[in-house]
Design goal:
The chain is mainly β. It contains no helices and 14 strands.
Length: 176
Amino acid sequence: MILGWVGPLPVRYLYGRVVERINIRDPAFGYDDTDPEGFRGGSFRFGRLLGAQQLGTTVYELPPGQSICPYHYEYGEEEWLLVLSGRPSLRHPGGVDELDPWDVVCFPPGPAGAHAVKNDTEEAVRVLMYSTVTHPAATVYPDSDKIAIWTGNDDDNVIVHRASGVDYWSGEPAAS
């Protein structure tokens, strides 16, 4: 019972709290003008809008010829893909597959979960992706041999080429 409430409980009241909801049938996609050609998909990130603290959730719309992001895999996070409409191409360690609407794929942490999602068709593709969100986490981009470290603090996040690695003691003062 909600103190002071008169009448039936609101539909969104569940387990002692108000439940937020968002309809993703026709979301307001955001586009980043700085994304290079081939990676110009729209996105609607809504996990935080619903109060999510451990999951990130995004609907992507991919025009023909566009990808969500470069081929990559995560350490520390598991990602999932649900095809909402269209037939995206999924690159994974075993090759490339064309997915169908309502196909679901799980990308486990590590190299076995490497993936890239691209629209190789002539019609728009929509997919929903969700993942655990942990910090710190690392993303590896095998094609460009880069590694990204995500700390939860934008000032400390970094993306580097693997070859730029330094020795553990590099730059440290000598012990006195």
